[in-house]
Structure formats: C-alpha cells, structure tokens
Amino acid sequence: MEQQDHSVTLAGSALKHRCHACAFFHDREEEYRLLLPFVREGFAQQERIFQIVDGRHREERLRRIGALGIDVAAAEESGQLEVHPWEDAHLRESRFDQYAMLGLLEEVLSKGNERFGLTRFWADMEWSLENFPGVDDLVEYESRVNEVTSRFDDVVVCAYDLNRFSATVVMDILRTHPQVIVGGILQENPFYVPPEQFLAELRARNTHVR
Q1: CA angle at 53 for the pair 189 and 11, rounded to the nearest 5°
Q2: Number of domain units in the chain
Q3: What is the pLDDT of residues 150-182, one digit of tens each?
C-alpha cells in the first residue's frame, strides 16, 4: 500500500508512518486536548474519522467535534464521521469477541482507504472495565491489533484513563503499542513488544497461573 501524501499530526508530533498508539490521560478534558486537534486536521484533509465511545458520552463527543467548526450532521451523512457506542463495536452481543473486533477494525480501515485515503481511528477503552464476557482478553486483543494495523497506513489511537486502570494492566497495554502518548507527548515506545513475542509470553504466563 502506498504511503499517504497527507501529513498526520498527533499530540504535537508529525507522524512519518502508520501508527497504533496508546494515549494515556487523567481526565476527559486532557483526552480532548490531546485528540481533538487530530480530528480537526483529519477533517481539513478530507480524511475519515471513526470513533468508539461510551454511549453515555456520545452526544458530548459530537458537540465537541461540532465546536471545531465541523458540520457534524453533514459529516455523518457523507460517511466521513462515524461515532459509535461500545455496543456497536467491542461489546456487540453483550460480550467482547476479540476476533470479531479485529475483523471490524480491518473492515473499517479497508473501507476508509477506499473512500477517503486515510482513517483516523480513536477508541475509548474503558469498555474493558465493564462486566461482560471476554473483556479479560483486552491485552491479547491489543497485541493482535498490530497484526491488522501493519497492513494499513492509518492511525489508530486507543485512549486509556489512567485513573481507572491498574498499574499492571497499564504496563501490559504499554507493551502492546508501538507508539505512546504520555504527558501529552507522542513518542516511539521503547517498551513495545511485537505480537508474536508478546503473545507467546502471555500464553506462558497464563499456563503458569493455571
């Protein structure tokens, strides 16, 4: 796949290649400060914006996007903007199926490339704290996401509220993302472990626990 001509700025840094980043924040205002400029730039470049949020916050998200000067209704009508609740994505059928979600991610990125050239994907990850079957597969899923994103030039950002996740989970999440936004700064992640290595480690860890 050819590299996109458009520049992508994320957390103040210019990206030179595809990106699967974890964005750590302490409250929703910090999350918006980090990622709304990323959305604004995408609209200015006629790229696709695909977001997954807690359904209770969907209207707020749309208001925030509208406050950027974007015609939300027209963007949704054209397919350039999609903001879905968790129940339409990670928690379809009231459970988390990592393979179904990986399939959805691949479908979203493929469709976006066909129509818009680049997809900017932003997902809030607190769905994994809900009481549904499969949510414990979060870390394995995040590692496998890299197998999908390696085939595209899109930008995928997984947003994590540090106040809600344990230090153990945060460390594992850090190890499954090639890029990380921490302290408002995007950087290449020195703790990243490729999927084949991380998944082998995870299997060994789970076997030891049993």
Answers
A1: 35
A2: 1
A3: 999 999 999 999 999 999 999 999 999 999 999
